[in-house]
Amino acid sequence: MAVYERATKAVLPEEQFEMFNVYLKKAAEIYGVTYTRQIYEQAIEVLSDNEAKQMCLKFADLERKLGEIDRARAIYAHCSQMCDPRTNLDFWNLWKEFEVRHGNEDTMREMLRIKRSVQASVNTQVNFMSAQMLSAAVAASDGLTDTGKDSMQRLEAQAKVLATEAARDQPVNRNKVAFVRGEVTEPEKEISKAEVHNSDEINLDDVESDDEIKIDEIQLEERGVPDEVFGQLKKD
């Protein structure tokens, strides 16, 4: 039997239930069904809730067949802590039938009291888990909101820094290119019409008129040619 016992610990968790069934079968064949009680107890302690519940039902049925009603009732009471009345109606119906056959009014009342206690415990756990989930969801949403605000604030601060640096890098006397209209403004028209007086300016019309005047005033006079000019020709 030591080999089977070590095997129940060496196998994978999902294989333990089947290994315990083999162990129980061999122990019952060799040592009798009463020897299997300690094996049942060991299996209920190490198996998962769903598998432990199945092992409890088998153990309770064994005790009932052996006539150990109180033992069977204690096993049902232990198993009830793993059975939610809303989702494990089969278990509670089976226990009710057991009390109808082998119990009395007091045991039936005790079974109903345990059922209400388990129901209240499950409701408390569900409410607590719901509150935790809601709190976690609210905290997560607040964290996302704060993170979004912080990101926007950081972006705005960076934009302000960049704008300040760009303004600082610009030259102080920067020539700005502006659009010049093609039409002549009123001041420009007045300037174009105004005559600018320059004392050194030469008036060509005046020069021409003066020359004409001088030409008109010149009178040609006829004068004789001196004899010295002709020289010897004159004598001939």
From TrEMBL:
An example of a Gene Ontology cellular component annotation for this protein is: post-mRNA release spliceosomal complex
Give GO BP annotations, semicolon-separated: generation of catalytic spliceosome for first transesterification step
Pinpoint the Pre-mRNA-splicing factor Syf1/CRNKL1-like C-terminal HAT-repeats domain residues.
Answer: 1-159
- List the signal peptide residues: none
**Per the record, which residues fall in region Disordered?**
188-210
The top of its lineage is:
Eukaryota, Metazoa, Ecdysozoa, Arthropoda, Chelicerata
Mind telling me which InterPro entries this protein's record contains? HAT_Syf1_CNRKL1_C (IPR055430), Syf1-like (IPR045075), TPR-like_helical_dom_sf (IPR011990)
Q: Mind telling me which Gene3D superfamilies this protein's record contains?
A: Tetratricopeptide repeat domain
Question: Keywords of this protein's UniProt record, alphabetized?
Answer: Repeat
Q: What is the designated name of this protein? A: Pre-mRNA-splicing factor SYF1
For bias kind Basic and acidic residues, which ranges apply?
Answer: 188-200
**Record keyword Repeat present:** yes
Organism equals Stegodyphus mimosarum
Q: Which SUPFAM superfamilies match?
A: TPR-like
Pfam families for this protein? HAT_Syf1_CNRKL1_C
